[in-house]
Each structure stands twice: as structure tokens, then as C-alpha cells.
């Protein structure tokens, strides 16, 4: 007997409207579901689903980057769908905020990533779909299925199209060395590592390069670009050591503070990011690659009980 699929409804929060439109179109050419948000004069808001979702498989698209309204809006959308008798609710979170708070690294601090996992489950999410978590083990914070998409399937073809003659992959810090080595396997390339020491969060005291970059075309690999200070310092040091060129690949363009100016004034040839977070302004050195097709295929595979791992194959 053939599998029976429930009706699918795709909605997007106010922080992911552009990406949501693209994902819905990539999924099966549809438009986003009808949803509105009522706002009170004090800033309080209430999402409202303007169409029936009874018995439907519902996908809510929303990154949980600041402000915290994005996270709260997602939780309330999930709650609204559950109370409206949705059959299955999937939270599609292209950028999973608070993921850098994934452990207790000092006394009396919260583990924000675990708290968000608890909140999503408590709100009624049956499944979470996200991309390039800051730490892959965050998946274990959930007791519901997590589809962890890999942005390398988007970045690798672009890097290959550049035909860089002496490609070397680099990690901007020791913590990202595994990510860089995984990426390097696609190109059979060498890996160099930038070893940095911080004074405090977002402030670097010193940095050294482990490996030879002379005459190489360097591609730095990271998951998040926040202030861009690490990337800019690494790029400058790499060029000082005799590299031909240096680029950076970062999945999530958080880009806070003076990040845009830092990137524009850096030694980077370009910064390649995705659209998991919308850019706040234009920058000639930033190139955006879309995640819409990958998320669209993932939604289709979830709905049709297909394999998510099949989406990670790179020719």
C-alpha cells in the first residue's frame, strides 16, 4: 500500500520572509502560507495563522538570531499550530541562535543552546531542521529528530568554480580545525591553522599561523562571522606570510558592530556567506549564496519520508 502524505503548509516568520519565499518556491513552486502578526503599543506581539492547518504537516521558517523576538515569534507560531490541531510541526531554523552557549565553560553561566532546545520541544515542535550548528553535538540536546544540513554542498561547487591554482584550506582558530579538514577533503588540499589567543569575547590578543601559506590561495572556513575581527586579522597575517590571495567562507553572516567596514578594509578578496541571516547592508566584498534549494529539498524529503543524507552528496 503506498505511503499517504499529509497536506504541507509552509510559513515564515518576520525575520525570514525573503528566504521563506525562496524556500517555498524551491519546494514545489508554492507561495508561503498566510500568517500575520498583531502588535500592541508596548511592543508585545501575537502571530496569527490565517488559514487552516488542521491535520497538516507544518513547516515554520525562522532563524533565531537577535533580537530575541525572532525566537519568541517562532515559539508562538509553533504553539499556535499545535493548538490548531496541526498533525506535525517542523521548526526550520537556518541559523540556530545561542549555539555558541553550548557548554558551561565558567561558573554560574547558562547553557543557552540547551535552553532553546527545551523551549522548542515544550512549544510543541516535532522536528527541527537547521544548518551548520556551531557545535554538532547540540543535536543531542534534543529528544526530537534534528536534521542538520551541511552548507559545504553549497560552498564547494562555488570554490571549485574559482579554479584557484594553489588552493589551501585554513581554519581561523583551533576549534574550527575539524571543520576545515572536512572541507579540505573535497579538494585534496592541505590545511593550515590560525592559533589565536583572546583577551575577552570578540577581542583577539595575538595570532600565529601553523603551516606554510607562501604562494598559496587560502580559503578560510568558519561557521559564524560576527565582528569579523578574527577573519580580518587572519587574512592580514596570511597575506604578510606570502599568500597569493585569501578568501573566507562563513555560513552565517551575523555581522555585528563594525563588521561590514572591517571586511571591506581587510585583506580578504571576498567573504562568501549564505542567506541564513539577511544582510543589514551592502558590501562589495560579500557574496551571498542561497540555501533555499537545499532547504526546499530537505522539506520535500521529510514530507515524503526520504533520506536527508542523500542531500549531502557532492559531485
Mean pLDDT: 93
User: Class by helix and strand content?
Assistant: alpha/beta
Our estimate of the beta-strand percent is: 25-35%
Sum up the overall morphology in one term: globular
C-alpha-based Rg, rounded: 20 Å
Question: Between the first and last Cα atoms, what is the distance in angstroms?
Answer: 34 Å
Which strands sit side by side, in order, in the main sheet?
10-9-8-11-12-13-14
Order of helices and strands: EHEEEHEHEEHEHEEEHEHEEH
Helical segment tally? 8
Low-confidence parts:
none
How can the largest sheet be summarized? 7 strands, mixed
Number of DSSP E strands: 14
* Helicity, as a percent range: 25-40%
Textual characterization of the structure:
This protein is 28% helix and 27% strand. The chain is of the alpha/beta class and 315 residues long. Helix 1 (17-28) packs across helix 8 and helix 2 (69-83) runs parallel beside helix 3 (112-123). The longest helix is centred in the first third of the chain and has 15 residues, at 69-83. It starts with 7 loop residues before the first strand and ends in a 12-residue tail after the last helix.
Element layout with pairings:
Layout: E1 8-12, H1 17-28, E2 35-39, E3 45-49, E4 57-61, H2 69-83, E5 88-93, H3 112-123, E6 127-131, E7 146-149, H4 152-161, E8 167-171, H5 177-184, E9 190-200, E10 203-210, E11 217-225, H6 229-240, E12 245-253, H7 259-264, E13 271-274, E14 286-289, H8 292-303
Descriptive terms for the model:
seven-stranded mixed beta sheet, 315 residues, globular, alpha/beta, single chain, five-stranded parallel beta sheet
Amino acid at each position: 500500500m503506498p505511503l499517504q502524505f499529509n497536506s504541507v503548509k509552509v510559513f515564515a516568520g518576520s525575520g525570514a520572509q525573503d528566504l521563506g519565499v525562496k524556500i517555498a518556491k524551491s519546494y514545489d513552486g508554492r507561495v508561503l502560507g498566510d500568517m500575520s502578526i498583531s502588535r500592541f503599543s508596548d511592543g508585545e506581539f501575537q502571530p496569527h495563522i490565517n488559514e487552516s492547518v488542521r491535520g497538516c504537516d507544518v513547516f515554520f521558517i525562522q532563524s533565531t538570531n537577535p533580537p530575541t523576538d525572532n525566537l519568541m515569534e517562532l515559539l508562538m507560531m509553533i504553539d499556535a499550530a499545535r493548538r490548531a490541531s496541526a498533525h506535525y510541526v517542523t521548526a526550520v531554523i537556518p541559523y540556530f541562535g545561542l549555539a555558541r552557549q553550548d557548554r558551561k565553560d565558567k561558573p554560574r553561566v547558562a547553557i543557552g543552546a540547551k535552553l532553546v532546545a527545551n523551549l522548542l520541544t515544550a512549544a510543541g515542535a516535532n522536528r527541527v531542521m537547521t544548518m551548520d550548528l556551531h557545535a554538532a553535538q547540540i543535536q543531542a540536546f534534543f529528544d526530537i529528530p534534528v536534521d542538520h544540513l551541511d552548507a559545504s554542498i553549497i560552498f564547494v561547487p562555488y570554490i571549485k568554480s574559482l579554479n584557484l591554482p594553489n588552493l589551501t584550506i585554513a581554519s581561523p582558530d583551533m576549534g574550527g580545525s575539524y571543520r576545515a579538514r572536512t572541507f579540505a577533503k573535497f579538494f585534496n588540499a592541505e590545511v593550515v591553522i590560525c592559533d589565536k589567543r583572546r583577551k575577552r569575547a570578540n577581542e583577539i590578543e595575538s595570532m600565529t599561523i601553523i603551516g606554510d601559506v607562501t604562494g598559496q590561495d587560502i580559503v578560510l572556513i568558519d561557521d559564524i562571522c560576527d565582528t569579523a575581527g578574527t577573519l580580518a586579522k587572519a587574512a592580514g597575517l596570511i597575506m604578510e606570510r606570502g599568500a597569493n590571495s585569501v578568501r573566507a567562507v562563513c555560513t552565517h553572516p551575523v555581522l555585528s558592530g563594525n563588521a561590514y567596514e572591517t571586511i571591506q578594509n581587510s585583506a580578504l578578496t571576498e567573504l562568501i556567506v549564505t542567506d541564513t541571516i539577511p544582510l543589514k547592508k551592502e558590501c562589495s566584498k560579500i557574496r551571498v549564496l542561497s540555501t533555499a534549494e537545499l532547504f526546499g529539498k530537505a522539506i520535500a524529503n521529510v514530507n515524503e519520508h526520504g533520506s536527508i543524507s542523500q542531500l549531502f552528496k557532492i559531485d
